[in-house]
Specification:
By secondary structure, the chain is α+β, with helices and mostly antiparallel strands. It is found in: Cytoplasm, P-body; Nucleus.
Length: 1193
């Protein structure tokens, strides 16, 4: 009998017939009225055998006794049991991958379905929307009715055993391998993979501080919930661990001990550890062979210890086990395989090796959860309650009575295929009179070749633009993406729908954002990423500096999009960019008049040349660098030249015999295609490597000046290269229909070759294919499924002409040699010694022709291992599609496919295999503390007597965690573009373009708390359409260096100050900082931002202005006529101090009470601050101390 002397002495008086004795021979059967011998040789119904407790059984409160038993699937072991955490349901999973659920204490079958075709179910966990099932190599989530929500296969060789739910809808999975996986249920993907010691993790539990990993080696490790680092380790058993559990400050474990030559033996001593002192306390000896154990903390922290034979003992972890507290689960001789305890601690569930599930409870009316929601059941059958129909009624719908679908007779609605095949509508015959009088007019085709990269060349739907939306040539993921703006701007736009990776996209609404795809290309070239982040110079508009700032944001982002506004602002000021026609007018971008294919190739040439010049310039002493300036920026050698540069030899031979040779450095090559002979009916077949070699080693005839002849003469110009670049950049120059036709024909030749090669191979059995369709359906991402079905490797090569890998070498006799090479193979040692190199395709940039949107540019990029390691903690390479803020993984063949009807090649990048090894890929932050020191103002009229801030002293340099008050003011460069709908609502097409005009930072602690140390007005060269003086306090002339009396600086100078503060780790306090940082173009981690907008905000309520918060909590009247950023930054600091006071005085309850009063007062006042004096009864209900209103500066 169980001993509950510490609870109630009378609770031990109960009928001994409720439990089996310890003698196996005296075990009662599953039902006392059934003879066990009668069950031998009898096949039970696999749909479930429910055995009810006799009516005479009376369960005593507090005593665990068997309440119900069910045979789920006879003979198949139950490997997992789980009480649903949301509903009154018990789940089980068996050895054959089948799952079943039982409702309530009567265990009526609710659902039953197959989870895995062969593997056993090892753990079950219920969620709010579904149930997770973990098998050896799969994680599957199903609804409670059995519909699959997602199915995630593990890595090859995985042997998963346990999972653990953590915060933020993530879970941790472990098994018998050398890693544990963190998995995000929102994005259904692994977020990181952490290495652990072999033989891996078999059991996981968690507490408030740690999560615990049990190993088959007998050890239990304690790991940090955030970093996964091992904090402590208990060596519990010398053999292996069978189970453990954690409650409060106690950890109890059971397992096997090594007995030398006799192998392992079950240890009847439970190891108990005190988690406060991290040491073992007195082991607990029990009277059963423990296999499972759980804490059941109802009245006391008692333990339930279960043996495999069905013996169950309850005892205190720090007391003595009593042999009278041993009970027996009636398994009919089967072994227990699984065990679980309900969240209410009122019910226990056991699964045995014979397919039985046993429910034990300490109360007749058992509840699995404290607060369970109502379970949805299937609708009852309505056949017996069908209405009577009047057959004589003409308008009565006969469908009121459902008809069962039978396969014996065909239905009248099953029309034959010949009658339902669509046929084209024939045009009516032309009137003979019209044909008789019609005149024939000669039609002459224009000889002027149209530009192929104009979007008007795209074939449209035969019925017009809007009449057939399901016929659409461009797949959805390639189409131009736009941001839908609402009243909240971008806050409620779901960027995660377009990007489920951890890489950052770029927003497209900024002028000249057509180059977003090429910015991504440069970012994913590791040497360039490191180069520009190590670079810093004095030039106000330096593209290398701005790229470094942008790449730093892309490094920090975890999937949220960034914007290249500062980079594009600097780009618009470069005279060479304007001269090359790279600066687009807004009308050209919106109407699609820009020839994007040519434009991006010119931009590619410009940016490489510009970065080469900016990074090779010698840099003298500057305010941004100290003595430890970066070697990359000051060595005089450009990494761009080393990476892309190729020394070429240009030879000009006049017909007089005079030859002129010049050497130069080229950063990219342009494709030149052979002229088509009009006498040839068909275009000749060429390989890509052949055309590339002729384009690099170009030979052409032209008129040039000959010094020998002293006049212009026909000369033959020849180009040869002396070395191979590390990254080969190719501009495809497919700018007309002639070049496009050449690509199309060559791709067809390559495709036919692949089909012939496949046909020559032994045929493989394959399933019949559906009929191919010519168009992708609207909404489809790729031409698969309902479009082409790629069952063979040859089909994958449709529209592919370029190779994925090339072998290139330069020899003294043969010159440049290029050939195709299998992607998976490496060069031999002899070939490497001869100077041969392999070049892999890493980037393709196509121009997409789309008549509906005006066309756009995307990039396919092969993202390397280092980027995946930084973002996801895994090491692999993967191709991705980058379409502004849409990012999707794609197959490598898709990156090389160019259907020139809508996808025209523009730029190709081939990288030498393993070229990273020769570059220094370390990043040293070049921004130093000197940026915060005193600097001269650009304004000519500014005097020190007008100073509004005191710069930081060397002794005041901020440290990590210190507080800084921040506020920024803005002006408008372009007005918002919106349209008025027919229902009167406004729809924002393009938001107004803002520019930062003033940035203020005030000290957040110390003797000078509240005193500004930055108050910069930002000079701008762009035209301001609205100074927003009422809201910003900025007046015309404040930003003009000729007449301004303010402390005027460049945006770059102030940007560097903020970057230094962010990199130092300070915390910014302000109001509406999210918008401020967005316009400044900074990415700040959430734990470094204290935003009073969200501190004083209740869910699903309106945001509250800084002016109203200051009046309510601080009794301050601010922002009277205009805004002042110093005043706003100080006020935000004081509000944060006030919030901390509320939190310290009463915790979250006090804060909630204050917010409730705030919203009530706001509704009464209509959220307007009264203008009357405080003495008239309309003053603030709160008052608080503040900073002095004036400073002696």
């Amino acid at each position: 009998m169980m001993n509950f002397e510490g609870i109630d002495a009378g609770m031990g008086d109960y009928s001994p017939t409720l439990h089996g004795s310890l003698d196996p021979g005296m075990e009662p059967s599953m039902d006392p009225r059934i003879n066990p011998n009668m069950l031998q040789g009898v096949e039970l119904d696999p749909e479930g055998l429910s055995v009810e407790v006799p009516d005479s059984v009376h369960l005593l409160e507090g005593m665990f006794s068997e309440l119900h038993s069910v045979a789920a699937e006879v003979g198949v072991p139950v490997t997992a049991t789980h009480f649903d955490l949301q509903e009154e349901m018990l789940w089980m999973g068996n050895h054959r991958g089948h799952a079943s659920s039982f409702f309530g204490p009567t265990m009526g079958r609710y659902s039953s379905f197959q989870v895995h075709p062969s593997d056993d179910i090892r753990q079950i966990h219920s969620l709010d929307t579904g149930v997770l099932f973990l098998s050896k190599t799969n994680l599957k989530c199903c609804t409670r009715g059995g519909l699959v929500m997602f199915h995630y296969p593990m890595d090859e060789g995985a042997d998963m055993h346990s999972l653990l739910m953590t915060e933020n809808n993530t879970l941790i999975m472990g098994g018998l391998h050398n890693y544990i996986v963190e998995f995000d249920l929102n994005s259904v993907q692994e977020t990181q993979k952490v290495t652990v010691e072999m033989p891996g993790v078999a059991i996981m539990r968690q507490s408030n501080r740690f999560f615990f990993c049990g190993h088959t080696s007998g050890k239990v490790t304690l790991r940090d919930m955030r970093t996964f680092k091992t904090e402590h380790e208990f060596d519990a058993f010398s053999g292996t661990l069978s189970d453990f559990d954690v409650h409060g400050n106690l950890l109890a474990a059971c397992g096997f001990s090594s007995r030398g030559m006799n192998g392992l033996a079950c240890d009847r001593f439970l190891m108990v550890y005190d988690l406060r002192m991290m040491r073992a306390v007195t082991p607990l000896q029990v009277h059963v062979d423990p296999l499972f154990l759980r804490f059941i903390p109802t009245y006391t922290s008692r333990l339930a210890i279960i043996s495999q034979s069905g013996q169950c003992q309850f005892c205190e972890p720090t007391g003595l086990a009593n042999v009278e507290d041993v009970f027996h689960v009636n398994t009919g001789g089967q072994l227990l395989m699984s065990f679980d305890v309900s969240s209410s601690k009122q019910a226990l569930a056991f699964g045995d090796s014979g397919g039985g599930v046993h429910l034990w409870s300490d109360a007749p009316e058992v509840s699995y959860n404290d607060y369970s929601r109502e379970t949805e059941f299937a609708l009852p059958c309505m056949v017996d309650s069908l209405p009577q129909l009047d057959w004589n009624h003409d308008l009565l719908p006969l469908s009121l009575i459902p008809m069962p679908l039978t396969s014996a007779e065909p239905l009248l609605s099953d029309w034959p295929a010949s009658m339902v095949t669509p046929s084209p509508r024939r045009a009516p015959a032309v009137d003979p009179e019209i044909l008789r009088t019609i005149k024939t007019v000669p039609y002459k085709i224009k000889e002027v070749e149209q530009d192929y990269d104009n979007y008007n060349q795209v074939p449209e739907s035969p019925l017009g633009r809007e009449e057939e939306p399901h016929l659409y040539m461009v797949p959805k993921k390639y189409r131009k993406v736009t941001i839908k703006y609402s009243k909240l701007g971008l806050e409620d736009f779901d960027f995660k729908h377009y990007n489920r990776t951890l890489f950052a996209g770029l927003e497209p609404h900024i002028p000249n954002a057509y180059c977003n795809c090429m910015i991504q290309v440069l970012y994913f070239l590791e040497p360039i990423r490191c180069l520009v982040q190590n670079h810093l110079c004095q030039k106000e508009f330096c593209l290398a500096c701005e790229l470094g700032f942008l790449f730093h944001m892309l490094d920090l982002s975890r999937g949220d999009p960034c914007q290249a506004s500062n980079f594009l602002r600097a780009f618009r000021t470069i005279p060479e960019a304007s001269a090359l026609g790279l600066i687009l007018a807004d009308s050209d971008e919106q109407t699609g008049k820009a020839r994007l294919g040519r434009l991006i190739q010119s931009w590619n040439r410009f940016i490489l040349t510009q970065l080469h010049q900016e990074t090779q310039e010698q840099e003298g002493p500057q305010a941004y660098r100290g003595a430890s300036s970066s070697a990359l920026g000051s060595s005089g050698e450009s990494v761009i030249g080393r990476l892309f540069g190729c020394e070429v030899e240009n030879s000009s031979l006049c017909r007089c015999g005079k030859e002129t040779v010049r050497s130069s450095l080229t950063l990219l090559f342009t494709m030149h295609y052979p002229e088509h002979n009009p006498n040839d009916k068909a275009v000749k077949e060429h390989e890509f490597v052949e055309i590339l070699k002729k384009s690099i080693c170009l030979e052409q005839s032209t008129q040039a000046w000959c010094e020998n002849c002293e006049k212009y003469q026909p000369t033959v110009q020849t180009r040869n290269i002396r070395c191979l670049p590390d990254v080969l950049v190719i501009n495809c120059e497919v700018n007309s229909a002639k070049e496009a036709d050449f690509w199309r024909v060559q791709a067809e030749y390559a495709f036919n070759k692949a089909k012939q090669k496949e046909a020559a191979e032994p045929p493989k059995p394959k399933e019949p294919e559906p009929l191919p369709t010519e168009w992708c359906h609207d909404g489809e991402d790729t031409c698969g499924g309902e479009g082409f079905t790629f069952n063979t490797r040859a089909e994958d090569l449709r529209h592919v002409w370029i190779p994925l890998t090339m072998k290139m070498s330069i020899s003294k006799t043969q010159g440049l040699e290029i050939s195709n090479w299998p992607e998976a193979e490496e060069l031999s040692t002899a070939e490497e010694e001869e100077g041969a190199s392999l070049f892999d395709l890493v980037v393709t940039v196509p121009h997409l022709l789309d008549a509906r949107t005006g066309g756009n540019l995307v990039a396919h990029i092969k993202v390397g291992e280092t980027y995946h390691q930084r973002k996801e903690g895994v090491t692999h390479q993967q191709w991705y599609l980058f379409n502004d803020f849409l990012i999707e993984p794609v197959d490598k063949t898709e990156a090389a496919q160019f259907n020139v009807n809508w996808k025209v090649p523009a730029i190709l990048y081939y990288a030498k295999r393993n070229y990273h090894s020769k570059y220094d890929l370390r990043i040293k932050n070049p921004i130093e503390a000197s940026v915060l020191l005193t600097e001269a103002s650009l304004a000519r009229k500014q005097r020190k007597s007008h100073a509004t801030f005191i710069p930081l002293m060397v002794s005041e340099m901020p440290q990590a965690g210190e507080l800084v008050g921040l506020d920024a003011e803005f002006v408008t460069l372009n007005q918002e573009e919106a349209e008025l709908r027919s229902d009167g609502t406004k729809s924002t097409i393009k938001p107004c373009q803002m520019s930062v005009a003033r940035i203020t930072c005030v000290r957040g602690q110390g003797a000078n708390e509240g005193v500004p140390f930055i108050d910069d007005y930002i000079s701008t060269q762009e035209q301001v359409v609205d100074y927003l003086t009422q809201y910003s306090g900025i007046k015309p002339g404040d930003l003009d260096a000729k007449i301004s009396s303010k402390h005027l600086t460049t945006l770059k100078s102030t940007y560097l100050k903020l970057r230094f503060l962010i990199d130092t780790g300070v915390r910014f306090a302000g109001h509406g900082l999210q918008k401020d940082f967005r316009v400044i173009n900074l990415l700040v981690l959430k734990d470094q931002v204290v935003d009073t907008v969200y501190l004083f905000h209740m869910p699903r309520k309106r945001m509250i202005s800084l002016r109203f918060l200051a009046w309510y909590f601080l009794d301050l009247s601010i922002q009277g006529e205009t805004h002042d950023s110093i005043e706003d930054a100080r006020t935000a600091l004081q509000l944060y101090r006030r919030y901390l006071e509320l939190s310290r005085s009463g915790g979250t309850d006090e804060v909630r009470k204050a917010l409730k009063g705030l919203y009530e007062k706001g509704r009464k006042m209509d959220w307007k601050v009264p203008e009357a004096d405080p003495g008239d009864g309309q003053g603030s209900p709160k008052s608080g101390g503040g900073f002095p209103s004036a400073m002696a500066l």
